[in-house]
Amino acid sequence: MATSLSPSATKPTEPPAPAAPVRRMSTSRKREARYFYLFISPWIVGFLAFMLGPMIASVYYSLTDWDTFTPPTFVGIDNYVRLFTEDPIFWKALGNTFYYAAISVPLGLVLGLWLAHLLNKQVRARKLFRTLIYLPTLVPLVATAMIFQMVLAPDGPLNGLLGWFGIDGPAWLLDPDWVKPALILLSAWGAGGATVLLLATMKGIPNEFYEAAEIDGAGSARQFRSITFPQVTPIIFFNLIMGLIGAFQIFSQVYILTSGGPNNASQMVVPLLFNEAFSYYRMGYASAISWVLFVIILLFTLVAFRTSRRWVFYETAMR
Amino acid sequence: MAITTTPAAVTAQTTRAPRDEPEGRGRTLRAFKAPPATYAVLLIVSAILFVPFVFVVSIALSSDQTVNTNSFTVIPREFEWGNFVRVFTSDLPMGRFVVNSCVIAFFAVIGQVISSSLVGYAFARLRAPGKNAVFLVVLATMMIPAQITMIPQFILFKELGWVNTFLPLIVPNFFSNAFNIFLVRQFVSRMSSEVDEAAMMDGLGFFGIYRRMILPMMFPILVAIGIFTLTATWGDFMGPLIYLNDESKMPLALGVQYIASTGQALQAPPWNFVMVGSLLLTVPMICVYYLGQKYLYEMNLSGGSAGVK
Amino acid sequence: MGIMDTNFSRRGFLTSTLVAAAGVITLTACGSDSGGGGGDSRLVMTVWGGEVDKAAYQARIDALVEAYPEMSVTLQLILSDSYAQKVQTMIAGGSGPDIMQVAENVNVYSSKNQLLPLDEHIATAKLDLDSRFGPVGSVYSYEDTVYAIPDRSGAAILYYNKGLFESAGISAPTADWTWDDMLSAAQELTVPGERWGYAGAGWWPLWWSFAHQNGGAIIDEAGRPTADSDAVVEALQYCGDLVFKHKVVPSTIDYANMGTDMGGDPAFAAGLVAMNTTGFWNVGSLAEQDTVEWDIAPMWRGKEQAVATFGSGLAISRTAKDPALAFKAIDFLTSDKSQPLVISMKQDVPANVEVQQSDAFLSPSWMTDPVNMQAFPESSSFAFKSTFIPQWNEMQQAFTDGLADFWLGKQEAAPALATIQERLESIIPAK
After folding, report:
1. Predicted ipTM > 0.85
2. Of A150, A156, A281, which is closest to C108 when you measure between CB atoms?
3. Across the interface, do C397 and A275 touch by the CB < 8 Å criterion?
4. Interface residue B212 vs chain C (CB under 8 A)
5. Are A179 and A262 spatial neighbours (Cβ–Cβ below 8 Å)?
6. What residue of B is the nearest CA neighbor of A147?
7. Per the CB < 8 Å rule, is A69 touching C257?
8. From CA C247, how far away is CA C265, in angstroms rounded?
9. Tell me, which fold does domain C157-308+388-427 have in CATH?
10. Quick check: B227 and B288 in contact, CB under 8 A?
11. Average pLDDT of C263-275?
12. Which residues of B14-27 are buried (b: 16+ CB within 10 A; e: fewer)?
């Protein structure tokens, strides 16, 4: 639903702007292109200097057997074959990761959006509320982990609260069936992170839209659906992509809270490859795992981008 | 999901009453009224999110005896304020840690804000062949777990002679990162480009548009980037762990990890000190966020997106 | 609102960037490593642990440098959880430590030639490992070559709540106690829901002790896994029965309800368990409190007498520039000139048996009430030696995964160990 404003409307002598680059570009387009690459040169330099080399190196290592001490021995695609055919723990970790991402990402988005919507109103003490909601993401994980272990203890406060409602709470982190929901709870606790961006965006929506809607008799629910939501879809989309990438790469929480247990019920792909690399000294195998994960994340991201055209609203053409 | 209201009068650049002004100045729009239900919900949610923090404070104020017997309570019942002093007089140079954290964070924020605003603007506004491919590569850099590039990057920095300095922790921030680029792109793309076109005709040039028109409007998102970078750097201990050898160079986040680690496998760490350290890590960030809210949410910047199709 | 009027002039922009760059360059200057300089006699020593360890190691290094002024040693204390990762990164990057602390993972490094063989240095220094360290003398060996010198080595001993024992009329435990003696004492001292008789053997060194006491072994001397032998199965099942059948030991869930990271040690200090078998490290903190009246004794016996030991050694990485100097330092640190500091700084039990038998250890200056420290040297005489295979980490993971259900009471020992044995056989290649 992009609104396009092509410069050709103001420069009648120009040929219409093509969607794909053509061999003959106008001078102003060439100039624009040059400026583009000039503006992004900081990133390019950083990428070439700090990222490209290590990335290529890790692709190479994924084709070797390397214990990081002795020189690597080339084994071709053996690591990948072994990963797919002989490693049941990998499949378990992959399934766990999908489960975690599929639930925590939408949950975080919904919670974040809902909280942002609430905080968008003229609530007294809103500064305080906003700070309290963002607070969980500011607490270091070493403290959060310990607190969560206490809260999620089989006879701990959370189960106590559930008991008031007559529910017999599970052993959470100690129960293979409930350890993943426990991790999802932990991620939901940090939903305030998404709220910051959503709220900042909401604040940038001109009042006139709401004024006009009110004049036209729209109720607050209608206003949210037709004004607020479309305007924040670019940031929702951002949070979706970031959330996906982050959820697939979850590491510290698993590493500290559960070590992947009980019996790999909460093992995820990145903690798994961390063990392979730094505990069993199989860096080649770990590199293979990471590139498989990369492809998976890339696929999901591409799908998200493709489908985004349907629901993300940009003020200008994303050219 | 098109906007359904299109009053013509809106196309002019009107100054708008900042939404968050105290009530009483004109009628509050229905969209922003806060019924009691809203308060109730916010109170409940905030309480749920706040209770763990109270717990942290309670543990920070506990005595050593309570630590040894692991008999903590959520509501503080001991008030060993001395713990805060003891943390600073222990073997670890906590004051030095704080200074190191400040230095690293300061430069990291500057680097990210400058570079991300430039690069993100380009992706949002400028056209070029190969742009989408480049953007894909940008995103791709986020999809590789850091644990895998850790050793090759370490070798790289070692060849540069940057090990045991702050450089590996600071310098990469001057080249932006995918998260911030994507964020700025999304934010700027929300802004109408009509005024861009007009400015072009006035001969402003891309850099001029950038600095005169887009940059001021980007301010809230740059503040957000600043806050995110600050909190990420302030709490990062993995990078310092790998690259710093001297204790005098360590930042606070790593210092707190040390307090939380013990030599023996089954021994419990001194949780009261761990929590004091965690509070030292958290409270400054809370202050930054609290004070920064004005720039995040309450900069009402007119112009640009007043245009409606 | 001034922001609207701000004009980031091009000059202002450039200026701020230059200032930032200048700052970074200054940081390079003042933050940079002083290179490998300081002469070749500078040794880097990596250890893991917390504050107590740091203080203890530093004190010993100070003594070393006093004795040999030409040496300069930099101590790098690394987080226990990240020690392996950081050392691995250092070695892979070519700047491995000169002296490095190692424990069960020693042969992960030695099997890949990352540690220097020490046999020649030992011969030159005329160091007799057996006489200095007793049974654990050559525990850090691989394929009959020694790769690390023992530095700290304490046996698992039994902490018991003297107050509770006395009021229940149970006589103090000795090395001759049998499993039945222990069980009956534990049953006497257990008050359901309030207190348990024994903290449990969930940690691998502890139930391995039971296995060895029953005549079995997890890894035989040839390095082959024998986790499903009858003796081991019987011993493990006994440990599980203590939790679920006799109910004298808290289960994982009971511990989780006691608090975060709750285990035998804090439970004993809180008086929630009457007996706890573990290593030296609680002696210091228990000596400072007076809630619990306590003492220690050697662990009980089964068909045989056997206990696990906890310790670490010092090795030299292959990137060390002056191995002879590094060995000289290690020799000093494990001699009776430096080992007394291990106990006087409340860190651990020194590996040096002479020091173990001395008064410096048996009645340390900081101990106000007498404690039966003799339990340590007595126990080390029947310590069993684990074979430190190169696949140690994977083996431990197999046990953790495979016993998860067992320790929750959902599985018997025999099937759990059968599965584990299968996995171990695939992990540990036959020679």
Report:
1. no
2. A281
3. yes
4. yes
5. yes
6. B52
7. no
8. 19
9. D-Maltodextrin-Binding Protein; domain 2 (3.40.190)
10. yes
11. 90
12. eeeeebbeeeeeee
Q: Shortest CA distance to C420 belongs to which of C264, C192, C236?
A: C236
Taking only residues 60 to 79 of chain B, the set having a beta carbon closer than 8 angstroms to any beta carbon of chain C reads: 65, 68-72
Instruction: Return d(Cα B119, Cα B180) in angstroms, integer.
Output: 9
Match 């020194």 to its residue by tokens. C350
Contact assignment for B155 to C93 by CB distance below 8 Å: yes
Q: Beta-carbon neighbour count of residue A116 at 10 Å? A: 27
Domains along chain A? 87-311 (1.10.3720.10)
CA distance B246 to chain A (A): 22
Q: Chain A window 134-153: which residues touch B at a Cβ cutoff of 8 Å?
A: 134-144, 146-148, 150-151
Can you name the residues that pair with C275 across neighbouring β-strands? C160, C198
Poorest-confidence range of A15-19, B297-301, C384-388, C406-410? A15-19
How close does chain A come to C107, measured CA to CA in Å? Answer: 12
Confidence at residue B298, expressed as pLDDT on a 0 to 100 scale: 73
Report CB contact under 8 Å: A174, C253.
Answer: yes
**pLDDT tens figures, C370-414:** 899 999 989 988 888 888 999 999 999 999 999 999 999 999 999
Task: Please tell me what DSSP assigns to residue C147.
Answer: -
* Structural fold of domain C42-155+310-380: D-Maltodextrin-Binding Protein; domain 2 (3.40.190)
pTM for this entry: 0.84
Region at A287 (left for phi over 0; alpha for psi -120 to 50; beta for the rest)? alpha
Residue B175 near chain C (CB below 8 Å) = no
- B110 shares its domain with B195: yes
Let me know if residue B50 belongs to a domain.
yes
Write down how long chain B is.
309
Closest CA to B14 of B252, B301, B309: B301
Q: Which one-letter amino acid corresponds to residue C196?
A: W
| B41 → chain A, closest CA residue | A118
| Higher pLDDT among residues C28 and C70, named by residue | C70
Average pLDDT score, chain A: 87
User: What DSSP letter does each residue of B240-264 carry, written as one string?
Assistant: HHHH--SGGG--HHHHHHHHH--SS
Amino acid at B303: G
Contact of B172 with chain A, judged by CB distance below 8 Å, is answered with yes
Q: Smallest Cβ distance to B263: which of C8, C48, C82?
A: C48
C91 close to A (CB below 8 A): yes
Alpha helix (H) residue ranges in C245-273: 252-258, 264-269
